[in-house]
Amino acid sequence: MSKSYFMGHYRMGNCTEKRLQTIIWFSTFSTLGVHDVHAGFVSVTGGSGSFVDSSFFLARRSIHPSVAHSRFTQQELPACKPILTPRWVISAFMLVSLVFIPIGVASLFASRDVVEIIDGYETHCIPQEFRNDKVKYIQTPGVKPCIRTMTVPKHMKKPIYVYYQLDNFYQNHRRYVKSRSDVQLRENKSENDVSSCEPEDIANGMPIVPCGLIAWSLFNDTYNFSRNNQPLTVNKKDISWKSDRDHKFGKNVFPKNFQSGKLVGGANLSSSIPLSEQEDLIVWMRTAALPTFRKLYGKIEVDLQKGEVINVTLENNYNTYSFNGKKKLVLSTTSWLGGKNDFLGIAYLTVGGLCLFLAMAFTVVYLIKPRRLGDPSYLSWNRNPGGH
Amino acid sequence: MAEKGVESKRLKEVTSLVRKGARRITLSIGDGANDVSMIQAAHVGVGISGQEGMQAVMASDFSIAQFRFLTDLLLVHGRWSYHRICKVVTYFFYKNLTFTLTQFWFTFQTGFSGQRFYDDWFQSLYNVIFTALPVIVFGLFDKDVSASLSRKYPELYKEGIRNTFFKWRVVGIWAFFAIYQSLVLHYFVLAPTSSGINSSGKMFGLWDVSTMAFTCIVVTVNLRLLMMCNTITRWHYISVGGSILAWFIFVFIYSGVALPKAQENIYFVIYVLMSTVCFYLTLLLVPIAALLCDFVYQGVQRWFFPYDYQIIQEIHRHEPDNSRVGLLEIGNELSQDEARSFAIAQLPGQKSKHTGFAFDSPGYESFFASQAGVFVPQRAWDVARRASMKSRAKTPRKN
């Protein structure tokens, strides 16, 4: 006799039962006084000799296998029933703080070890007489040199990374981000695929390679470093991600028809170097997430001692003055974690410290206001009997 | 009030009167053809599949085999359903609110140009693959207390009547935590990327950061579901782990394949991310920082303002899990008297099953008397009469 199931599938029973025809209003169930109903049954031999086995619902006919009793459909899966007792709460907090505080300390130390020199030069590199009309100055053709000095505060180990930082430059603007054609960058034969690159798609009737606003606005300030009148070479190789060089920018795609329109937005590109080796372009085209961003310019492969004065001869070409953007030059070492960013260290320490504090606070609170686990006096019908 | 043999129009009128006049949620239960209109008039109609045929069953919202299954229908399954639906609905809004708000905070930093934070495919598949299955599993299997405890404490049903789990206050708290989590997810992911990201000084782009944020949000939202469960079966582990794994598999494939389309923003992004220590540190920090507030709230709520079902869980926390026993197979729980009356009820009764009335057997006083536990003892002559009757062959009824 196969067991029949009950919940989730109500079958017609064959059992003789009193047929009840009732209307019941369940307006508030408390008034009905619902009480224990033991739905149990028993192995009993009925008077007529019929044997009622331990499953109450005799399925006198066999059950179709598709609705057969299974732990899944009957919701009888073994389960663990976690209860958030004080012990668990405090242990969780202690565990988090034990893991986070050391990580935070390590991250903060790594960040503190990094030496960073920042120099904002967009105002200083405009000659005094042009300070009232900076846009006009920046748009005059020709070389616009500028000399800056930077003093090394602490010993900086090689390699020292040179970045340019732009403020208020929205590389994450929607129309800017979509203004590129990755398939054109990758393959020579897709040179005409410029549909998403408006307005920098076609110039003089020919497609622009690389097309789009992102490439058109390529940063074109240059920096030359010297120390004690000895030039410091800047290594401009390997400043972009290897995956970009290998797969995103083709080895046989050459710039063509670039910056040939009336409006020149940035740097020009040599048409004899393939795109996969134009690392400045590759770095620039990885659009930044925030309006204040840095991009890698190059590496200095010598140590710098504390107190040394670095002379920077830079060419102030890039027009950030039309939109009140700022330009900064950054020299930075790195650690295993990256550049100088205290955020991870501070965040880990804060969360770890907060968890430690909460663990203590919860311990105190649990000691001051204890509640026995499973205290029935907290049940709502025991707290205000008869009331709602 | 028990009605027997009343015409259906009358039954329907009385039900509608209570439903509209007294403005209560009504449930009506019946097994005959004349009960159909009454069943349809009430909010919840329950039909008993009985000897009069299936009309009541076909017209009803729920059908049961015997009248006394109504207890389980309400106290066990009705209550579980309420609990599950409340949690599923509020969780669904929470996870979408968190996801959308993370993008919303980004619009402040794009010059309000409308640049999306996440890639199109990520957005489309968020609700379809990466966060769908766990909440379904939760809605199927979650039990705040077991079935036997639900029956033992029928006062738990009050939680549904008082609408404890779907008040505006509850929705507001979920929304508050969604806002808090979206702020953590957004700013904690963006903040470490302002300077060089690995030891070779390279920088992350927009799509690197957004993929990192999406990974964090998938992990956070799925872990939040686990925090909300009262029963955790192996399907919970499979669905939560599977969803997170599905995300990683998807993004490995999506960013590993150079698709022939105009923009390949996500190309190779995940591999770039996974080559930096910053990614792993952020992935550890952000979900925990985001869920910290929820965890504190749950700890405080459970200890100082516990719900009834939580107290009952604690009272019975050491009892063995009897979910393996079928819901109605709870061994010999009948007392002697109950066993006896059961056995007597199994004796052949009247010649015909159709008595036309519900309450005419000897020994049966009235429905409400029996509910109040007042029974008239079986008459000896009746028991003897029935015991001596030849038992009818109990052939299976064809329907």
TrEMBL record, chain A:
Highest taxon in the source lineage: Eukaryota
InterPro entries: CDC50/LEM3_fam
Membrane-related topology note: Multi-pass membrane protein
Keywords: Membrane, Transmembrane, Transmembrane helix
UniProt main location, coarse: membrane
Location(s) in or outside the cell: Membrane
GO annotations of cellular component type: membrane
Transmembrane segment boundaries: 88-110, 343-368
Family: Belongs to the CDC50/LEM3 family.
Entry protein name: ALA-interacting subunit
The organism of origin for this protein: Ilex paraguariensis (yerba mate)
Automatic annotation (TrEMBL), chain B:
Signal peptide: none
SUPFAM superfamilies in alphabetical order: Calcium ATPase, transmembrane domain M (SSF81665), HAD-like (SSF56784)
InterPro entries: ATPase_P-typ_TM_dom_sf, HAD-like_sf, HAD_sf, P_typ_ATPase, P_typ_ATPase_c
GO MF entry, a single one: metal ion binding
Keywords assigned: Magnesium, Membrane, Metal-binding, Transmembrane, Transmembrane helix, Transport
Compartments where located: Endomembrane system; Membrane
Membrane topology of the entry: Multi-pass membrane protein
Highest rank taxon of the organism: Eukaryota
First-listed, main subcellular location of the protein, grouped into a coarse class: membrane
Positions of transmembrane segments: 88-106, 121-141, 168-189, 204-223, 235-254, 266-293
Residues of the P-type ATPase C-terminal domain: 57-306
GO cellular component: membrane
Keyword Transferase in record: no
Protein name: P-type ATPase C-terminal domain-containing protein
Organism: Ilex paraguariensis
